[in-house]
Amino acid sequence: MPREAMPGAAGRQGARWYNPAMPFVTLEGLEGCGKSTQARRLAERLGPSAVVTKEPGGTAIGASVREILLSHASRGLVAPAESLLYFADRAQHVAEVIRPALAAGKLVVSDRYVESSLAYQGHGRGLDREVLRQVAHLATGGLRPDLIVLLELPIEEGLLRVGRRGGHDRMESEVREFHERVRAGYAEMAAGEPQLWARVSGEGTEDAVAERLWSVLESRGLLVGPVGSGSRDAGR
Ligand SMILES: Nc1ncnc2c1ncn2[C@@H]1O[C@H](COP(=O)(O)OP(=O)(O)O)[C@@H](O)[C@H]1O
Ligand SMILES: [Mg+2]
């Protein structure tokens, strides 16, 4: 089936179609930078023409894997085991959710994807990034995002926000140097493929970030139709 712009309910209201050449978008960034919040808001705004999903835990099997990964009981998890669990979750997610949605002509937005593994297990824990890329290929069949949005927020601010969310999970409890390596890893990947990545500041209110993110999606050509043709209609 051709990936043509499919106006869903949002589209029928004269609103927003996505660019069928860019059907797969991922949100990346450190703990507390606002990925899940913004994913939820994107889902509301994009309507049924989009599938908004997450890793780990985007499938029933993945939800079990997520419990192992984020539980404090998994303190003894060694880095390769951790990494393979993330990729097990991802393989299931790609097969069960992402590929079927793309095949059905949907825009897919995933809260985290392969680049999280490269940033956290590669840059953060020091696993061989070339090997991780090969495992990524095994898990995803080589499916790469068309656009990766990096939400950027100072480490402390993210952890503060997470603290307010209540209780730090295993990854959030990592030392500051770990988060700093992850942040630097993301920055390096984004600098290496600037056409693939869009950096968006996660500072300010949820509304401010949502507006910023939306304009970046527009300017990167992800949203077409009434938006791309210059209409300022809010269209929600
Ligand atoms: N712009 C914002 N300003 C203040 N708090 C925010 C903002 N965006 C999200 N939050 C809150 O910060 C916490 C972390 O946000 P979340 O979206 O879960 O981050 P992530 O998924 O990137 O870890 C949540 O409690 C959320 O409600
Ligand atoms: Mg989240």
Q: Which features characterize this protein?
A:
236 residues, alpha/beta, binds magnesium ion, binds adenosine-5'-diphosphate, Rossmann fold, disordered C terminus
Report on this structure.
- This protein has 236 residues and is an alpha/beta fold.
- It has one domain (9-224): P-loop containing nucleotide triphosphate hydrolases (Rossmann fold), CATH 3.40.50.300.
- The chain has nine helices and seven strands, in the order αββαβααβααβααβαβ.
- The protein has helices spanning 9-12, 35-46, 60-70, 79-103, 114-124, 129-140, 155-165, 176-192, 206-219, and strands at 17-18, 24-28, 50-54, 107-111, 147-152, 197-201, 223-224.
- The strands form two sheets. It has a five-stranded parallel sheet, with helices on both faces. A two-stranded antiparallel ribbon has the order 1-7.
- The model is unreliable at 1-14 and 228-236 (pLDDT under 50).
- The structure holds adenosine-5'-diphosphate and magnesium ion (MG).
Structure summary, number of beta strands: 7
Radius of gyration: 17 Å
CATH superfamily: P-loop containing nucleotide triphosphate hydrolases
What's the mean pLDDT score? 89
Low-confidence stretches: 1-14, 228-236
What is the approximate shape? globular
Order of helices and strands: HEEHEHHEHHEHHEHE
Strand content: 5-15%
**Helix/strand/pairing category:** alpha/beta
Tell me which CATH architecture applies here.
Answer: 3-Layer(aba) Sandwich
Helix content: 40-55%
Number of helices: 9
CATH topology descriptor: Rossmann fold
Sheet of most strands: 5 strands, parallel
Major sheet: arrangement of strands: 3-4-2-5-6
Distance between the termini: 27 Å
The CATH class assignment is Alpha Beta
The molecules bound to the chains, other than polymers, are: adenosine-5'-diphosphate, magnesium ion
Q: What is the count of structural domains?
A: 1
